[in-house]
Amino acid sequence: MSKILIAYASNSGSTFQAAEQLGRILGKKHKITLQKVEDVRLDNVSNFDGVILGTPSWAEEGYEGFPLPAMMKFLRAADGHDFSKLWFAFFGCGDSAYTHFCGAVDIMETFVSKFKSQSLVPPLKIDGYYFDRKNNEAKIESWAKTVLSSL
Amino acid sequence: MFLKPKTEQRLETPITCNWCPGCGNLAIWSAFKRACVQNNWDDSNTAIVAGIGCHGHIINFTKITAFEGLHGRAIPVASGIKMANNKLNVFVFTGDGDCLAEGGNHFIHAARRNQNITVVLHDNAVYGLTTGQTSPRSPKGYKSKSTPDGNVEEPLHPLRLALASGATFLGRVYAGDIPAVAAMLQRANQHPGFAVIQILQPCVTFNKIYTHDFYKENMYALPADYNAADKAAAFVKTMEWGKGQIPVGVLYEVREPTYEENIPQIARRPLVAKPVKNRNIIELYEKYS
Questions:
Q1: CB contacts, 8 Å: B12 with chain A
Q2: Given A13, A69, A70, which is nearest B30 (Cβ)?
Q3: If interface means Cβ-Cβ distance under 8 Å, which residues of chain A face chain B?
Q4: How far apart are CA A136 and CA A133, in angstroms?
Q5: I want to staple A104 with a disulfide (CB 3.0 to 4.6 A). Which of A67, A70, A148, B34 is the partner?
Q6: Any idea which of A35-39, A45-49, B4-8 has the lowest mean pLDDT?
Q7: Does the pTM exceed 0.80?
Q8: Integer angstrom CA distances of residue B134 from B127, B128, B140, B155, B246
Q9: Which residues of B touch A67 (CB under 8 A)?
Q10: Minimal CA–CA distance to A72: which of B133, B213, B148, B86?
Q11: pLDDT over 90 percentage in chain A
């Protein structure tokens, strides 16, 4: 059994609910801690075997397709830390009608190298969570199973 | 046969929701469905009423007995439902324009009567459905299509207004915190009397001031030792608004006799449960015709 941290940033609740669903599925076989990213203590992160980060993509800091401020604050604070013993995985909610669909997920991924860590699985990009709930929940479940089979 | 929702998905209608991506209404809708499942609210014990505005779509997307009032008239419809069957959980979903402009009088007088209903005020501080005009909650100086040179009026503060009018439960919560909204809905519904929840609901398309980031940066939770039964303290809290000064939580809660408890005809048994007497009114017609 692995200890997994799921840390998320959310505005309208879609990323939060996706994080909850991941937690329910992964929690059947592993010990899950579900937290708002602003509540995560950096000195506690190394106590986990893996970290799953989720954020929607918004216009922030003058860029479209950017993580929410709370996630960026976490990533910047974590920059330079050695998390080489942990694996990371990323997911996010977005809207493919925008130019940088789930751009925030790509930005989170670029931080993996700075953490000296690795992505466990390819990221999950959720398109219009609320507008195609059934299919998106199926997509989240499928990704969660991929995470499980990779552990 | 009443619907007994066991999951939030079973409370959804076939209609695809059409709120903007990122809209606070999406989170309020999610929270309401969650609260329904957690509290076994269904068609047999709950009715919802919406006004006119973006918020009003909630009745189209939620499979539970629902009504839509004319603009500003959701509260009177809810009052009628409660009078007919005061055993029902009755929720009013209303916007700041709907509730405080067109429906301001109804809001005040329902609070004054302490009617046992819960008003869920989707406060996005604009008229979102009609593309972002200034509302009674828009801040002074707010520029929109209806006030291109800036709003010259001061905004209304709904919780202060409700408190002054006689409401006995005041809650405030940020839309994006789904568990907190669900818990507040439950607590407000459990309160006997007129309950108002001001939900800080960002309009991501038209309101560039009261954004998700704005609320996250400026909200603070009421401290554990805050006395929600202290009316004077509640008034002080309703005066707070601005940078780092937006209290969230239960600002006020006291137990007073409800309107329904004060009416002997329905105090013990709801009107709907009373048998209808068949009366011959032909004699009356003949007498007065």
A1: 133
A2: A13
A3: 10-14, 16-17, 56, 58, 68-70, 95, 128, 130-131, 133-134
A4: 5
A5: A67
A6: B4-8
A7: yes
A8: 6, 9, 10, 10, 21
A9: none
A10: B213
A11: 83
